Amino acid sequence: MKNYIVYLVSLVLLVSLVSCVDTEEHDDTPTGNFEALWEIIDEHYCFFDFKQHEYGLDWNAVYNKYKVRVNDKMNDTQLFEVLRDMLSELRDGHVNLYTSYDMGRYWAWHEAYPQNFSDTLERRYMGTDYKISGGMSYRIFDDNIGYIRYESFQQPIGESGLDDVISYMSLCRGLIIDIRNNGGGNLTTAEMLAGRFVQEKTLVSHLQHKTGKGHNDFSPLEARYLEPSSKMRWHKPVCVLTNRSVFSAANDFAVIMHALPNVKLVGDRTGGGSGLPMSSSLPNGWSVRFSACPMYDRNKQHTEFGIDPDVPVALTNEATAQGIDLIIEKARELLTN
Question: Which of the residues 213, 215, 233, 329 has the least number of beta carbons within 10 Å of its own beta carbon?
Answer without folding.
Answer: 213
